[in-house]
Amino acid sequence: MAILLSYSERDPIPGGCNLEFDLDIDPNIYLEYNFFETTIKFAPANLGYARGVDPPSCDAGTDQDSRWRLQYDVYQYFLPENDLTE
């Protein structure tokens, strides 16, 4: 079974405001961890735009029509320690 979802020009582009990582548009999540902490790094999304049009600037204002209107929710889930049953 396949389900097709069409995106419009108003949908956000994950990783579209990448200024830190190697790809121009980088939707990946990078995890770094040690014994004490886990760090999550990701490039922020940009607002959607039509094909053939220049993308909106990532640093233009903080009003409701800029990428700053996008919100991110981060969830944390703890797995049972030393439970290798699955």
Automatic annotation (TrEMBL):
One of its GO terms (cellular component) is plasma membrane. InterPro entries: TM7SF3 (IPR042502). GO terms for biological process: negative regulation of programmed cell death. It comes from the Eukaryota. This is TM7SF3 isoform 15. It comes from Pongo abelii.
